[in-house]
From TrEMBL:
Active site (record annotation): H176 (proton donor/acceptor), C238 (acyl-thioester intermediate)
Keyword Amino-acid biosynthesis annotated: no
Protein name: Class C sortase
Cell cycle keyword on record: no
């Protein structure tokens, strides 16, 4: 009769030990989260800025459907006053040396027309909207180019034509580039000849096709003057990033008739700022940091050796009861 096989004990398991807060690893985890925050700040701040800009445009578009802005006579009078103002302009704009943005010459002959009251939208200072789909630009246009205005969106350069179209006119729209908390005209250097952009003002839709892309010196002021027989809009920003010694000029000429697709898209939401991928990446960094702290809080287990088989005095090569071939 065979005897029961002797049970060979397995390797002994060492308890992990009590969890303790790992201060060095916690500091490292905090550094990971802080580093991710620094890297993602421009994308995060830009996302919130775009959301606010889209909210302003949506608010203005909604208000245009309410009195008095929805009345054809009101809009027609506003557009007529803007055209009269354009006819009264004496000259264009200047690009002052050591300035990030252009400034305007004195307006002469405008009579009783007050700049800030022209094209007055339902939102204070709001003039219109610029859409440049190829560059992901969808921004509100405001009166003037003050520092406060240019933190909100695009500024219209007083002293240049109001953006209502018309021959012998050039409207200059300017915005910052390379801000840490907003995109604005950061990608204007990617503009290409043949691109189109759209200006929406009081329900009017004006499409412009890019005909010129120039990088100029600040004293080349003639580049911003109106051209006889042309209907132009010029987008201006500074370059190179952080140095601002030159200017990018992207000039579009009016396309008539206005493309049907642009008319159909007027007043629709921009789709910006898009999905917040920054939140996904920040969440991943936080999860990584928490996991590091949790895992590091347990003591490292010592190396586990297999348990030795008890020696019964028969030697390492001797057969043991119940092991081997049955008889």
């Amino acid at each position: 009769m065979s005897t029961p096989a002797e049970k060979v004990p397995g390797p002994a398991r060492t308890p992990r030990g009590r969890w303790r807060f790992p201060w060095p690893q916690a500091v490292a985890a905090l550094a990971i989260v802080a580093g991710a925050g620094v890297v993602l700040y421009p994308q995060t701040a830009g996302w919130f800025t775009q959301r606010e800009q889209a909210r302003v445009v949506e608010l203005a578009e909604t208000a245009l459907e309410q009195p008095p802005h929805d009345e054809p006579g009101y809009r027609a009078q506003q557009l007529a006053d803007a055209a009269a103002y354009n006819d009264a302009l004496a000259s264009g704009a200047v690009l002052e040396a050591n300035a990030n943005l252009p400034a305007s010459d004195v307006v002469a002959g405008a009579g009783s027309l007050v700049y800030d009251e022209l094209l007055a939208g339902p939102v204070e200072g709001f003039m219109g909207r610029l859409r440049y789909d190829a560059l992901g630009i969808d921004l509100p246009i405001f009166h003037g180019t003050s520092d406060e205005t240019l933190l909100e969106g695009i500024g219209h350069l007083e002293g240049t034509s109001l953006p209502v179209g018309g021959l012998d006119s050039r409207s200059v729209l300017t915005a910052h580039r390379g801000l840490a908390n907003a995109t604005m005209f950061t990608h204007l250097d990617r503009a290409e000849i043949g691109d189109t952009f759209v200006v929406e003002v009081l329900g009017e839709v004006l499409t412009y096709r890019v005909r010129d892309f120039q990088v100029i010196e600040p004293d080349q002021t003639e580049m911003l003057l109106a051209e006889p027989g042309a209907d132009l809009v010029t987008l201006v920003t500074c370059t190179p990033l952080g140095i601002n010694t030159q200017r990018i000029l992207v000039t579009g000429e009016r396309v008539t008739p206005t493309p049907v697709a642009d008319l159909a898209a007027a007043g629709t939401p921009s789709g910006l700022p898009g999905f917040p991928w920054w939140a996904v990446m920040m969440g991943a960094a936080v999860i990584l940091a928490v996991g590091l702290v949790w895992w590091s809080g347990y003591p490292v287990r010592p190396h586990e050796e297999p348990a030795a088989v008890p020696d019964d005095g028969r030697g390492p090569g001797a057969a043991r009861p119940g092991v081997g071939r049955r008889r």
